[in-house]
Structures are given as C-alpha cells and as structure tokens.
Amino acid sequence: MANWPQVSVDTEKEYDMCFVCGPKNPIGLKLKFAQEGKKVKSEFTPQKNHQGWSGLVHGGIISCLLDEAMSYAALFSGVNTVTAKMQARFKRPVQIGEHLTVTAAVTKKTRRLVEARGEVRLKDGALIADSIATMFILSTRQEPRGNA
Q1: How far apart are the C-alpha atoms of 54 and 57, rounded to whole Å?
Q2: CA 23, CA 49: separation in Å to the nearest integer?
Q3: CA 2/CA 116 separation, integer angstroms
Q4: How far apart are CA 99 and CA 65, in angstroms?
Q5: Are 73 and 67 in contact (CB under 8 A)?
Q6: pTM above 0.85, yes or no
Q7: pLDDT digits 0-9 by tens, 12-27
Q8: Helix, strand or coil for residue 18?
Q9: Euclidean distance between CA atoms 123 and 2, whole angstroms
C-alpha cells in the first residue's frame, strides 16, 4: 500500500451525499447510526431498487451496509478512516422487504489502523452476513460523533 496515491480527504465536510448515510443523496440508503455501548447500530429494509437477482438484495448493498457500520464504529471511537481491506462472508440470501439490523464494533485500534467487525441480521436474529475490516486512520476527531 506504499504506492497508494496521496489523496486529500476533507473530513470536516458533512456527509450529505454519502451513498449509505447521506440524507441528501437522492439514490442513497439514508441510514442513521446510533451508538449502543461499544457497538453502532442501524436498521434498513431493502426495496426493489436494491435487488440483484429478482427478489433478492444485491450482495453489494449488503457489503455497503457492513462497510458503513464498521466506519461508523471507528467514527464514534473518535477517528476518521477509510477502508483499506474488508472481507465479508454471506450466510444466506436476503429477500426484498426483509427488515435488517446492521451492527459493528471496533476490535483493535493502533496509531495508524483500526480493525472492526460487522454483522447484518434479520429481525429474528438470523445472521445474514458478517465482516472484518482494516481501516486507515486519516485523522482524530475533537468530539467523537456520528449521524444519529
């Protein structure tokens, strides 16, 4: 990763157009994350425009939910990050209209990196997908916060 280009990231701007959490993104998912102890949590009910195969939620949407939750876990812990590596495991397909809960927590934090775990579950608690990620710390936050 030493050959990554140097990119300026403005972490002070609002998240209005973020695909997953941006409230002003017309095609976004508009999730809101809340902190519950050491975890973050959000809920989402996928619609027809989130499908891959007919009637099933696209795996990329599930991956977006996981990535965003893990990023929010880092954000609530006081750092701005970008995902460097993420691995997701899909346990079963999700049908359009099934209510989902996504959670994540930071599992390790060093000077430069954050590791986190995330899960997506059905209303009855059945595991849909889980993930682990390593994220680069861009900067620290004066006040840890999210969009809750």
Answers
A1: 8
A2: 17
A3: 22
A4: 13
A5: no
A6: yes
A7: 666 788 989 999 999 9
A8: coil
A9: 42
Identify the residue whose tokens are 């899909």.
Answer: 90
CB–CB of 98/46 below 8 Å? yes
Q: Which domains does the chain have, with CATH numbers?
A: 40-140 (3.10.129.10)
Could you count the other beta carbons within 10 Å of the beta carbon of residue 88?
Answer: 17
Q: Which of the residue ranges 53-62, 84-93, 103-112, 134-143 would you say has the lowest mean pLDDT? A: 134-143
CA distance 148 to 91: 28
Please give the Cα distance from 84 to 133 (Å, whole number). 7
Amino acid at 126: A
Cβ pair 118, 103 in contact under 8 A? yes
Residue 7 tokens, joined: 């990119």
For tokens 């609530």, name the residue. 76
Question: Whole-angstrom Cα distance, residue 67 to residue 73?
Answer: 10
Please state, in angstroms and rounded to a whole number, the distance separating the CA atoms of residues 28 and 41. Answer: 18
Contact 102, 94 (CB under 8 A): no
Return d(Cα 53, Cα 65) in angstroms, integer. Answer: 18
Dihedral sign for Cα atoms in the order 117, 91, 27, 8 = positive
